[in-house]
Amino acid sequence: MIHSLPLNNAMYEYQYQYFVERGIRVIGITLRGFDRSDKPYGSYNYEVFAADIKAVLDELEIRGAVLAASLWAG
């Protein structure tokens, strides 16, 4: 689950509980630069965020995941 900007993955607190209680594995990712995530120097854009998400999925060897996200447009 990917949070909307400018929040963090805690925004899905109740959704995590719902899915875990039903035996569904849930992974929440806080994007770089938000909350307590790393804040490296460089670009912060959708291409960078997508690469970060792919890196997490690759590291965990996850295939066939369902991505849930929220968009907050201000």
Overall description:
This protein has 74 residues and is mostly helical. The chain has one domain. It has two helices and no strands. It has helices at residues 13-21, 46-59. It is globular. The two termini are 20 Å apart. The relative contact order is 0.24.
Please, how many domains? Answer: 1
Coarse shape:
globular
Strand content: under 5%
- Total helices: the number is 2
Q: How many strands, which pairing sense, and closed or not: the largest β-sheet?
A: none
State the helicity in percent bands: 25-40%
Total E-strand runs: 0
Compute the average pLDDT: 86
What is the radius of gyration computed over CA atoms, rounded to a whole number of angstroms? Answer: 13 Å
- The structural class is mainly alpha
Instruction: List SSEs in N-to-C order.
Output: HH
What are the salient characteristics of this protein?
single chain, 74 residues, mainly alpha, 2 helices
Quick overview:
By secondary structure, this protein is mainly alpha-helical. It is built from two helices and no strands. The chain is globular.
Q: How are the SSEs ordered, and which strands pair?
A:
Elements: H1 13-21, H2 46-59
